[in-house]
Amino acid sequence: PNIASHERSLVFEKLMERERLASTGIGHGIALPHPRTLPEIAMQKPQITTCFLTRQIEFEAVDRQRVSVLMILLAASTCQHLTLLSKLSFFLRDGVFRDYLLAGPVAEDLLLRVDQLESEKASGGA
C-alpha cells in the first residue's frame, strides 16, 4: 500500500485540518480535499483517490451544491502537490469530463480517460 495503516489517522487529521481552513468543494458536485503536503508520511508516490458517494453530502462548496465525488489528492512534496493540483484543475474545468466523472465510471475506464486527456493536452489538442 502507498500509505501505511498506522499513518492513516495522520492523513485524516491533515485532511480535516485543510477543510477547516476553507472548503475544498470546488463546485459541480465535486470536492478536492488536499492537505498541502505530507512529508511526514512515507508515501511511495503521490496519489489521487476518487470516491463516488452513494449519497450526496453538504460540503460548503463554492456553488452551494452537494458533493457526490471526492478526489483526494495526497503528495509528499510541494512540487508533486502543485503539479497534480494543476493537472486536476485543468481537467475539471472541462464540463464533459466533469459529467463523465459524476456518472461514476469504473476505475479502469476513468484511468483510460485521464490518460487520453493527458495525451491530448500534451499534443495541444485539449
Stretches with pLDDT under 50, minimum 5 residues: none
- Which structural class do the helices and strands define? alpha+beta
* Structure annotation, total helices: 4
Order of helices and strands: HEEEEHHH
- Main beta sheet: 4 strands, mixed
Number of E-state strands = 4
Task: Assign a percent range to the helix content.
Answer: 40-55%
Shape: globular
Average the pLDDT over all residues and give the rounded result. Answer: 90
Cross-sheet strand order for the largest sheet:
1-2-4-3
Tell me the strand percentage band. 15-25%
Our Rg estimate from Cα atoms comes to: 15 Å
Measured distance between first and last alpha carbons = 33 Å
Topology:
Elements: H1 8-21, E1 25-27, E2 30-31, E3 47-57, E4 67-74, H2 78-92, H3 95-102, H4 107-122
Parallel strand pairs: 2-4
Antiparallel strand pairs: 1-2, 3-4
List keywords for this structure.
single chain, 126 residues, alpha+beta, 4-stranded mixed beta sheet, 4 strands, 19% strand
